[in-house]
Amino acid sequence: MFPINLDLARLSVALVGNGQATLNRLRQLDGDGAKYVTVYAEDPIAELVDQAGDRLHRYLPNSADVNAAAIMFIVDLPPEKAAELAAIAKAVGTIANVEDVKEYCDFFSPARVTRGDLMITVSTNGHSPRLAGRIRHAIENWLVPKWDQRLRELSGQREKWKADGADMQQLLKMTDDYIDRRGWL
């Protein structure tokens, strides 16, 4: 596995499913700033209809629809439909995640903790999402909200050091010294 963070404000996302889990994923995508989300649902729950608005298509995507997306999330569909959509995604080069079906996933959504721009993720590569969630909860208790301010402070300081001509090695040492002097870690 190779961990990356994707800018969902720049990539097209297809979300496929009908129920509460699909609604939860859509809320997460919306909260993460995803701009180009298309929702496909044959029989959506009322809350999903409301959240999706004009992004909702009341059918499962065809190969052209899947091809138009960079990323596809398949949620709460029967296994045979999920497998078929995962195969279409593979054929057209769209990366896909079939929730809780590891063998059909090109990527996994990690459990995460955010404090502003600071993000810590936990992944079990699909082996135990519950364990990842439990570890995330432990990190949430440790990573207090003031870490967002600390990151902004450190970022501003780093920009000053760069403007003063610090190279990468110097930036590393100055950052460590800054963190250590403040007792952050």
TrEMBL record:
The entry's keywords: Methyltransferase, NAD, Oxidoreductase, Porphyrin biosynthesis, Transferase
Domain Siroheme synthase central: 115-141
Gene Ontology biological process terms, A to Z: methylation; siroheme biosynthetic process
Main EC class the enzyme belongs to: oxidoreductase
Pathway in which this enzyme or protein is active: Porphyrin-containing compound metabolism; siroheme biosynthesis; sirohydrochlorin from precorrin-2: step 1/1
Keyword Methyltransferase: yes
Claim: Transferase is one of the keywords in the record: yes
Domain of life from the UniProt record: Bacteria
EC number(s) per entry: 1.3.1.76
GO molecular function: ferrochelatase activity; methyltransferase activity; precorrin-2 dehydrogenase activity
Family matches, as PANTHER family: SIROHEME BIOSYNTHESIS PROTEIN MET8
Protein name: precorrin-2 dehydrogenase
Species per Swiss-Prot/TrEMBL record: Thalassospira xiamenensis
Lineage: Bacteria, Pseudomonadati, Pseudomonadota, Alphaproteobacteria, Rhodospirillales
